Amino acid sequence: MKYFIEIWGCQMNEHDAEILAGMLEQLGYQKTEQEIDADLIILYTCCVREKAEHKVLARLGELKKYKHLNPNLVLAVGGCMAQQQEMGDYLRSRAPYVDLVFGTHNIHRLPQLLQEVKESDSILIEVWDKEQEIVEDLPAKRMDSVKAYVTITYGCNNFCSYCIVPYVRGRERSRHPKDILHEIEDLVEQGFKEIMLLGQNVNSYGKDLTQKIDFADLLEQIDSIEGLNRIRYMTSHPRDFSDKLINVIANSTKVCEHFHLPIQAGSSRILKQMRRGYTKEKYLELVEKIKTAVPNCTLTTDIIVGFPGETEEDFLETIDVIKKVRYDQAFTFLYSPRKGTPAASMPNQVPNDQKKQRFQHLLEVQNKISWEINQKYLNKTEEVLFEGPSKTNPNKLSGRTRGNKIVIAEADESVIGTIQPVKITDAQTWSLFGKLEQM
Ligand code: SAH
Ligand code: SF4
Ligand code: F3S
Q1: Which of 44, 59, 169, 266 gives a 20 to 30 Å CA spacing to 309?
Q2: Which of 256, 283, 308 is the last residue of a domain?
Q3: What is the pLDDT of residue 231?
Q4: Using CA atoms, how far apart are residues 76 and 97, in angstroms rounded to an integer?
């Protein structure tokens, strides 16, 4: 039996898919890269923006033909889009050839669900409307051999007014530190060099635990694990970034000097409407504190353009923040109304062409800054953790600096999984190019 999993969305989904793959391999399934060879196809979906949803529906239409070619094929839809209340019924009427729909709260049920699917002659829908206790010790088949995802919190309690994630991922739940530490120690033993801690808001780690522990404490404990080289985390909310946390990061040896601080918008008025819990001034203050404590840090962000009611003046506040902070990179999104979120029914939705114009303007400003920052790396030597073959430059390897910049260099495959000094010889907007220094 062969499985094929297609993943949309963020790292949470990528890691869920690793767990699905782990469970399937325990059942004796093998992975395939070809839909046509598969006995089980899982689309693991995202719904953070409308476009992602449309793509899934189009993809289902394409996959229908494999059901004709292989009548035993099980076609399943899981993930955030499937978790939405009305989605099961929608798929039942629009794509009745789908065999199984499951949500984000019951992925551990996949083995039983596959059994039940065999006995059911219509679409089987099992979506739990509420999250349950965290299920520990699920197997995971890691996609990478150098860096590994480790979840520290599930769900989100923030309810930013534009965002659907809290509705499809449930309330915030922290894993026990001992479970997290065991998992990381085990990964280090297996040879992993870098850990990416996952949570929608890692800074609120521990708030729901009886044990008194916060994210800074957890980082300190992970920092002392021998054999681990690098620690990253995703995502930290600017509202909850404490001085204690900055201090721990500044003094740690393994936590990388990369800060991803999603601002979303530069105008304090819009930030209030977004329910982000900080103002432009507070955010800029935080960035200054970080730059002072960790002078060689890199900074990245997420930005939404065209939130309802965003005027040209509001938008220029975003441009102002970009110019003041000088991010290494910004991930920019057109605001997409999500049904059931407060922002979707706010008046003064921004017309699409205006959103696109602002998006373009922002991109131009940011790309210039990214390029300028990268030029400063020329002729410098960076510590690069090599991850594998470069996707864009065949015959070369790709790795990352501690600041999370991609570096492409010619090197022997034996350096994969090791940290090497690389002299930067060329710098572009999105990546650096270099030569391995002689050891
Ligand atoms: N928990 C993370 C982000 C999760 S979603 C955080 O708070 O930063 C990833 C990004 O998608 C968000 O940072 C935001 O920029 C974007 N996003 C979320 N909802 C969106 C929407 N309705 N339209 C456009 N972009 C959105
Ligand atoms: Fe969405 Fe806000 Fe939670 Fe991030 S913090 S997942 S943007 S609600
Ligand atoms: Fe998408 Fe779900 Fe992540 S909606 S962004 S895959 S948490």
Answers
A1: 169
A2: 256
A3: 98
A4: 10
**What is the number of structural domains in the chain?**
4
pLDDT tier at 187 (50, 70, 90 boundaries)?
A: very high
Residues 10 and 103 in one domain: yes
Provide mean pLDDT across the span 221-242. 96
pLDDT of residue 439: 61
> Are 227 and 283 found together in one domain?
no
Mean pLDDT of the chain: 96
For 414, the 3-state DSSP assignment is helix
Find the domain containing 24 and state its range: 2-126
What is the per-residue pLDDT across 388-418, written as a single tens digit (0 to 9) for each?
Answer: 999 999 899 999 999 999 999 999 999 999 9
3-state secondary structure of 123: coil
Residue 315 and residue 210 share a domain: no
* CATH code: domain of residue 428: 2.40.50.140
Per-residue b or e along 9-38, where b marks 16 or more CB atoms closer than 10 Å to that residue's CB: bbebbbbbbbbbbebbeeeebeebeebeeb
CA 48–ligand 1 middle distance (angstroms): 7
| C-alpha 224 – ligand 1 centre gap (Å) | 32
Ligand 3 contact, 170 CB (< 6 A): no
Answer yes or no: is 136 within a domain: no
Residue 173 has pLDDT above 80, yes or no: yes
Domain boundary among 95, 126, 157: 126
Please classify residue 233 by burial: count the beta carbons closer than 10 Å to its beta carbon, then call 0-12 exposed, 13-18 middle and 19+ buried: buried
Residue 154 has pLDDT above 80, yes or no: yes
Whose alpha carbon is nearest atom 3 of ligand 1? 200
Considering the domain architecture, whether residues 336 and 360 belong to the same structural domain is answered as yes
> Which H/E stretch holds residue 213?
none
Inside any domain, residue 139: no
pTM over 0.90: yes
Does a structural domain hold residue 138? no
List the one residue out of 213, 211, 210 whose CA is nearest residue 222. Answer: 213
Sign of torsion over alpha carbons 131, 136, 142, 147: positive
Q: 122 and 7 in one domain?
A: yes
- Residue 239 C-alpha to ligand 1 middle, in angstroms? 15
pLDDT in tens, 20-36: 999 999 999 999 999 99
**270 and 241 in one domain?**
no
Q: What is the mean pLDDT of residues 142-167?
A: 97
